[in-house]
């Protein structure tokens, strides 16, 4: 008797859900017997980056969850939360139950920054800080916020998020979904000055225009830009002409550079042409940051001037990019932190396609671009998976029945959550927020999440 095409997707963040959506919109799904999709997620809850990587004061971005909900509500999809690939199940296990496997595990670690002093106490990775304030189940519940002057290295949206959270007051964030431990931690935050450093100029900043402008919306944050940092060469001018977003960012920075400094209590400085050279320390702790002044070389790139400056800061956050975790049984490109692929098909060292195995999202192309950009990845990957299916290139699973997966997980002692369980967890978080007039209060302890979801 014919059966559906069975696909496992490892990672239930936007990339994985977009892949599921592409499968459901395919001709294969429209024909009988269609497709059957199981999403495996390490966290008890779905949505990945949106739940644990987007700052809590960005409800507009978190609104993407509404669209993702519509996908996961489809009857062809099952969610297996709290299931860790590499521990709870392997690639061989997945091949036993599915025709194809798509990995969409994203990126959660901090990319390294090779400068002296990076190991000092008070030197932090932005990804770790984001995981703390977003209530990630696997991170500690406390964070040291003793520094009155803080440096943030990087000129992307993550750097903006980190700087903004450090510069805002705790009560400004209370209407969001932050859990009680984060609110209490931020109430103790002593930061009065936050300095954001970029090695290149305003035209090369990777901020989104809207996120940059949001810095200036807080009644407590005074955004300051040095007029001397507003500089462009021929390459920079060309970038502005060809990139509307870059031009909007540059215009915003120009406007801030020429205005008078106001009297808001927290100062947030955006510095350009300052390349981090060393984190300064005493007794194992951060006591400053040394940067080298750079200058444009005509192409939009910069070169060092040999002029150094020491900045009085006692905490440094590096926001220089995310890095994916290596996945067991898959080939790995150490330099890029990605799984090698061609069109989403996983490629082994021999150059051959790893049978029935695919990647999409950041694990495929690295942590670049906005959330919506992963749709294109998913469409290409799924198109090639379906092409392999149409030409008989997928492996035939030994146990393709849906019930066999549940039996296998039960035999391994896995306690998994379901899509129905997410609705229970969602309701529990909203119930916690209701007495405070908040939309929700995020539950952060894994055991509490499992209990709320009925697992």
From TrEMBL:
<protein>
    <recommendedName>
        <fullName>ferredoxin--NADP(+) reductase</fullName>
        <ecNumber>1.18.1.2</ecNumber>
    </recommendedName>
</protein>
<keyword id="KW-0521">NADP</keyword>
<dbReference type="InterPro" id="IPR055275">
    <property type="entry name" value="Ferredox_Rdtase"/>
</dbReference>
<dbReference type="InterPro" id="IPR036188">
    <property type="entry name" value="FAD/NAD-bd_sf"/>
</dbReference>
<dbReference type="Pfam" id="PF07992">
    <property type="entry name" value="Pyr_redox_2"/>
</dbReference>
<keyword id="KW-0274">FAD</keyword>
<keyword id="KW-0560">Oxidoreductase</keyword>
<keyword id="KW-0285">Flavoprotein</keyword>
<dbReference type="InterPro" id="IPR023753">
    <property type="entry name" value="FAD/NAD-binding_dom"/>
</dbReference>
<dbReference type="InterPro" id="IPR021163">
    <property type="entry name" value="Ferredox_Rdtase_adrenod"/>
</dbReference>
<feature type="domain" description="FAD/NAD(P)-binding">
    <location>
        <begin position="6"/>
        <end position="172"/>
    </location>
</feature>
<comment type="similarity">
    <text>Belongs to the ferredoxin--NADP reductase type 1 family.</text>
</comment>
């Amino acid at each position: 008797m014919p059966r559906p095409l069975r696909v496992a997707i490892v990672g239930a963040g936007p990339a994985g859900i977009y892949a599921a959506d592409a499968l459901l919109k395919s001709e294969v799904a429209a024909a009988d017997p269609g497709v059957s999709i199981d999403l495996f997620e390490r966290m008890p809850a779905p949505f990945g980056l949106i739940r644990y990587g987007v700052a809590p004061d960005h409800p507009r971005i978190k609104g993407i969850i509404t669209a993702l909900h519509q996908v996961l509500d489809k009857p062809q999809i099952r969610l297996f939360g709290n299931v860790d690939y590499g521990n709870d199940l392997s690639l061989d296990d997945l091949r036993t139950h599915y025709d194809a496997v798509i990995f969409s595990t994203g990126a959660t670690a901090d990319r390294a920054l090779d400068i002296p002093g990076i190991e000092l106490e008070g030197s932090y990775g932005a990804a770790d800080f984001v995981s703390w304030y977003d209530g990630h189940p696997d991170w500690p519940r406390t964070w040291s916020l003793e520094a009155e002057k803080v440096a943030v290295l990087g000129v992307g949206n993550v750097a903006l998020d980190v700087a903004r959270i450090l510069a805002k007051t705790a009560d400004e964030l209370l209407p969001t979904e932050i859990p009680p431990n984060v609110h209490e931690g931020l109430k103790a935050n002593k930061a009065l000055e936050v300095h954001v450093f970029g090695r290149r100029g305003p035209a090369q900043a990777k901020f989104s225009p809207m996120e940059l402008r949001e810095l200036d919306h807080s009644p407590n944050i005074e955004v300051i830009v040095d007029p001397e940092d507003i500089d462009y060469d021929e390459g920079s001018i060309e970038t502005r002409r060809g990139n509307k977003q870059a031009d909007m960012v540059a215009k915003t920075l120009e406007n801030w550079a020429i205005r008078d400094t106001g009297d808001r209590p927290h100062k947030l400085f955006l510095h350009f042409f300052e390349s981090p050279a060393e984190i300064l320390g005493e007794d194992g702790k951060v006591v400053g940051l040394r940067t080298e002044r750079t200058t444009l070389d005509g192409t939009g790139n910069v070169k060092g001037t040999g002029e150094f400056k020491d900045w009085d800061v006692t905490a440094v956050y590096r926001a220089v990019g995310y890095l994916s975790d290596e996945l067991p049984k898959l080939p790995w490109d150490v330099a890029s932190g990605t799984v090698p692929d061609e069109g989403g098909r996983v490629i082994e060292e021999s150059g051959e396609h790893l049978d029935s195995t695919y990647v999409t999202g950041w694990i495929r192309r690295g942590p670049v671009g906005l959330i919506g950009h992963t749709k294109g990845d998913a469409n290409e990957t799924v198109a090639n998976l379906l092409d392999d299916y149409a030409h008989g290139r997928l492996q035939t699973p030994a146990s393709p029945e849906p019930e066999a997966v549940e039996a296998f997980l039960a035999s391994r002692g896995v306690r998994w959550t379901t899509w129905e369980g997410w609705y229970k967890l969602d309701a529990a978080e909203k119930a916690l927020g209701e007495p405070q007039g908040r939309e929700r209060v995020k539950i952060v302890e894994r055991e509490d999440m499992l209990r709320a979801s009925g697992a």
